Amino acid sequence: MSGTMRVPACIFVMASLLLGQDPSKLTPEARSFIEVHFLAAKRAEADSDFAEAIDEYREILKKYPKLVPAVYQNLGLVYYLARKYEAAIETFREGIQLDPSMVGARLFLGTAYLDTEQPDKALPHLEYAQKQKPTTESTTALGLAYSALRQYDKAAQYFKFGLDSSEQKDKQLYFIGDSYLKSSERVANILAEKNPDSKYDHLLAAKILESQDRYQMAAREYLEAGKKDPFNAAIFSPLARMLAVLGLDKPSELALARYRQLMVVDQRATLDASKLPKGQTADVGPKIDYEGDLKALPPVDARNLPPLPMLNSDVNAELRKRLSSDRTAKWKAGTDNLLHARWPEGIAALEGIPPADWLRDYLIATAYLWRDEYHKAEETLGRQALKSQTSPSVQMLVWEVNQQLSFLHFNRLLDEFPQSARAHFLKGRTLDAQGNKDAEAEYQAAIAADPAQSEARIALADFYLSNSKYREALAECQKALEVNNYFSPAKIRIGRIYIQLRDPQKGMPYVQSVLKTDPDDAQARADLARGFELLGEVDKAIAEYQRALALDPSLNRIHYVLGRIYRKEGKAELADNEFRVFAQNEARERAKHLTNAKQLQENQADKSGRASH
Questions:
Q1: Burial class of residue 372 (count of CB atoms within 10 Å of its CB; 0-12, 13-18, 19+)
Q2: Most buried in the list 92, 194, 523, 570, measured by CB within 10 Å?
Q3: Are residue 265 and residue 293 in the same domain, yes or no?
């Protein structure tokens, strides 16, 4: 009998600790009432009977709404586990009003806000929980919050902080790699937008295309980069490799020869044909005269080589200025050591230069990148002199370091957890980017390994949509919503599919739900407008199309759609104006392509003329 009495007594002691309430401060009646219902709630939780647990906790709060604030924490957690996120949020908030120091309530309130796509509201609660009692859960949740707010650098740091203590290292590695990847993508987009048709734009495109095994397109971009930066040896080695992969041996030899001319310390550089991808050939279509273009580049003057030929001309121009005024010989020592791949000596010499110069830290970060010490490169990029620099050269380096950090963690994921859901998803995503149909099997393997992984379902849905399999895509999105009814990527695709299938009554509520969360989603506005158009609600359709254009003027086809609607409504002047704007924008785009084509023809004509002489 004593044994049977001892168990409930121990449970009640634990219950008291969980409630954060000193039993001696409760009246006997209150203590007895709370004990009975609390223990009943815990038994229901153990049986996964969340409805019963909710009822028991609510009985306590109905009678003693302010006596034990931590009951709100327990009740909120049950709501959360039952995926009743709105009820969980309201319950946690009530408890925190009574006792703001409840770390568990703050942590799960932040997590519930994340699950309902409200990261801005989640952040202060997660930061509090992390400050008071840092755990793997709090660091991961903070990383997810910062990622949702597109602060990817901060997200990566929190994910890394929680890696060693995490029991789900595969997820942490994926989150880290994905954060660095998204950060690099943002840098790339800004770099291309601010420097169109520049050496940076083309070199960036070339590196990305090469990573996707699109060798023909990569070779073209490397060549364009080489034309704009003809003394950057870092362009001509990969160009030689791309051309060799495509079976263009003579141009490949010319590109490699130029690399050797620029990099006199690497005169024996060769390409190992056995390590090149097989079965690649140049595309059928308009031919590029790689050989002629390479021969037309300015000759390399061995007496006037760039100080560091593996860097672009802008950096070398700055470096020449430092070398010409170098009284300590530290710039010269650092440059010479880097040129001859003596990384530690080069870094040490450069560290001896006063820290106010951004170029010093740029070269140090580059040296760490070249010797594959990516975390040290990242640390150096965080130095104030370099961090404040927004020049294209620095942004290109930031992009490359983030890319390598992304690959580093993704490769760890694939090596250490090859059968995990995240590894299959990553492989599927990579194959998808390459246009490989095997992506479907990897996405399906990811879902089989973790049916609750919504990202994989959305990726599979997009794969189906690209192959016009609307019903299959719809099914995957609906399954994603079963896991989290607030998941916007699933909602917007369901809405768009129904609207494309001319069933706006079903599609529009999903689109409107997404816009409630993100009212500035231009494409969702366009989807909503199309829904109104199908319903014959013309004024609403026009208003939404106009709002979509205001949010994203690049959606040029909307001008054509508006013109068609206005013409149908008998508003000829408005229709003509929209058609005119559409035609003007189209003409500008065509002009860009024609200018590039004309320049190519002129280059070919010049070469033909020189050849005839």
A1: exposed
A2: 92
A3: yes
pLDDT at residue 281, rounded to an integer: 61
CA dihedral 530, 535, 541, 545 (to 10 degrees): 0
Cα torsion at 249, 255, 259, 260 (round to 10°)? Answer: 50
The answer to whether 261 and 235 have CB atoms below 8 angstroms apart is no
The boundaries of the domain holding residue 51 are: 2-133
Is 370 exposed, middle or buried, given 0-12, 13-18 or 19+ CB atoms closer than 10 A? Answer: middle
What is the C-alpha to C-alpha distance for residues 253 and 250, in angstroms, rounded to an integer? 5
Amino acid, res. 540: K
Which of 324, 305, 303 has the alpha carbon at shortest distance from 313?
Answer: 305
CB-CB neighbours of 6 under 10 Å: 10
* Distinct helix (H) and strand (E) counts, the chain: 32, 0
Joined tokens for residue 165: 């203590």
**What span, in angstroms and rounded, lies between the C-alpha atoms of 154 and 445?**
31
- Phi and psi of 543, rounded to 5°? -60, -40
Whose tokens are 């942590």? That residue is 107
| Cβ neighbours for 603, distance < 8 A, ≥ 6 positions apart | 293, 296
Q: Cα–Cα distance between 558 and 578 in angstroms, integer?
A: 9
In this structure, the chain runs to a length of: 613
CA dist., res. 429 & res. 373, Å (int): 26
Half-sphere exposure of 532 (CA within 13 A, CB side): 20
Report yes or no on whether pTM surpasses 0.85. Answer: yes
Say which amino acid occupies 505: Q
Number of structural domains the chain divides into: 4
Note the pLDDT of residue 606: 53
For 503, the 3-state DSSP assignment is coil
What is the rounded distance in angstroms from the CA atom of residue 375 to the CA atom of residue 260?
30
Last residue of a domain, one of 417, 433, 452: 417
Q: What is the amino acid identity at position 592?
A: K
Q: Is 467 helix (H, G, I), strand (E, B) or coil?
A: coil
Q: Specify the pLDDT at position 533.
A: 97
Structure token pair of residue 582:
């559409």
**Whether residue 244 is found in the same domain as residue 254:** yes
Q: Is 433 a member of any domain?
A: no
State which residues of the chain have pLDDT below 70. 1-25, 279-286, 590-613
pLDDT at 18: 44
Residues 7 and 121 in one domain: yes
| Residue 518: other Cβ atoms inside 10 A | 11
The tokens of 109 are what? 């309130």
Three-state DSSP at 20 gives coil
Residue 8 confidence (pLDDT): 38
Q: What is the pLDDT of residue 545?
A: 97
* pLDDT value of residue 337: 98
